[in-house]
Amino acid sequence: xxxxxxxxxxxxxxxxxxxxxxxxxxxxxxxxxxxxxxxxxxxxxxxxxxxxxxxxxxxxxxxxxxxxxxxxxxxxxxxxxxxxxxxxxxxxxxxxxxxxxxxxxxxxxxxxxxxxxxxxxxxxxxxxxxxxxxxxxxxxxxxxxxxxxxxxxxxxxxxxxxxxxxxxxxxxxxxxxxxxxxxxxxxxxxxxxxxxxxxxxxxxxxxxxxxxxxxxxxxxxxxxxxxxxxxxxxxxxxxxxxxxxxxxxxxxxxxxxxxxxxxxxxxxxxxxxxxxxxxxxxxxxxxxxxxxxxxxxxxxxxxxxxxxxxxxxxxxxxxxxxxxxxxxxxxxxxxxxxxxxxxxxxxxxxxxxxxxxxxxxxxxxxxxxxxxxxxxxx
Length: 378
What we know:
The protein is built from ten helices and 17 strands. It is α+β, with helices and mostly antiparallel strands and about 375 residues long. Helix 5 (about 155-165) crosses helix 6 (about 180-195).
């Protein structure tokens, strides 16, 4: 049955008219087919360039699920076990500490594990959570840099991992969900396990096989004309903060952020989502086992996140697909990015949604509203 997705289209136009976004693209795929694709506004307001489906955008934390899947490929090859201590691969973490609540440090109750990195229970934030943590992050050069915290630290992920081991964790391993640099350290582990730099391993294991030709840690010269500028501010007062033509992303960074570093397009990211929807198979070739994906979509927090559930790289929640007598409950995996990009995958329905724009800092809401509006029509 033909779907109009009128509500989602109207919501995008409303947000555009209200000045809540400069431009963006919304994509929904169901059973391997595009059922909704809507591009609105501008990728570069100053140059009056339209936002299109092939516009390159900063994915920020939507890098994390890609890193998690790439790491689980190495898990399938026996390169590590989820409950291996992190210090087995990065010895500096054998001496890691935890804040004791009295202004001092104490030894962790148990070793930090690889699983803690996947599920964000390491206790390591982005430098927030306690003033003393911010000071320690600044001293080690681990803070994201201006403008608006858009740019990564000025050090390699090898050096970042060593530096993080010198910073106290906010809590003992496994006690809470704390969002931060965990997946960037997982990216460093990928380098250790694979013997390749993270960008090279991504290309070999993920980006090449999936034909994600527009996804990388840098915007190459021949693609810069498609790169979006980024904006900041509140509602109708959005201002330019990182012009596409002069962005540091054009030259790249030392820090190959497995947690935040990729630039991609909505169509390229759809190829990654389709791999998950298709149970780890791409064009007849299996890249990831079905049981591995099931594990990644199984809650790993065991209640320490309260009602919040998180697997190995994906936030998990039950959602309703359809409406009225046709409504049914399904599990979806999702995450978003700092520039207000958003995606979610509903494997049982062979369904996924992606929304991209370029506005910082993160102010989630629009992407989820669009997804809900579309899913109600299915």
